[in-house]
Design a protein that fits this description.
InterPro entries: Nudix_hydrolase, NUDIX_hydrolase-like_dom_sf, NUDIX_hydrolase_CS, NUDIX_hydrolase_dom, PH_domain. This is NUDIX hydrolase. By secondary structure, the protein is α/β, with parallel strands linked by helices. It has a single domain, classed as Nucleoside Triphosphate Pyrophosphohydrolase (Alpha-Beta Complex), CATH 3.90.79.10. The chain is built from four helices and seven strands; from the N terminus they run αβββαβββααβ. α3 packs antiparallel against α4.
Amino acid sequence: MTDTPLLQTRDEWLASLRRVYAASGCLISDPEGRLLIVKAGYREHWQFVGGTVDPGENPEECAKRELLEETGIVKEPGALLAVGWTHPSAELDHPACHFLFDLGTIPADTPVALPPGELDAYRWATPEEALVLLGPSRSLRLAAGLAARADGRTRVLTTPMVGF
């Protein structure tokens, strides 16, 4: 018989759980069906308007906040289109969960105010252009988001590619 307890304490159990990075993105179209994407100078590929979920907010609140911070646009997020899961990698030591929300359609001439030092450019891209510009991981989320827009069914996808 041993004096060591067989069960972990609650704190030990919580400390043993995997942490997950969480982020939200916005799928925004113009009336012609082009998609609003943004470019950070420190990343190879373009990205969705969006970012990491802050403490105390949920993924939908994150999408709304990031839209305002990255574009100056105020709009309520619509349906959750896709949830992307990426496994840990050399780039990120924890899994990541990406939420993609439908932000609907806005006119292409809507003023976009990029935050200095964070984003370098924005553009309206056709879905075909965006699939290339977003890179492998984000393009999978885009394809899932567009499919979800078409049939109203949220997609869940897993990819080994980070693209955070």
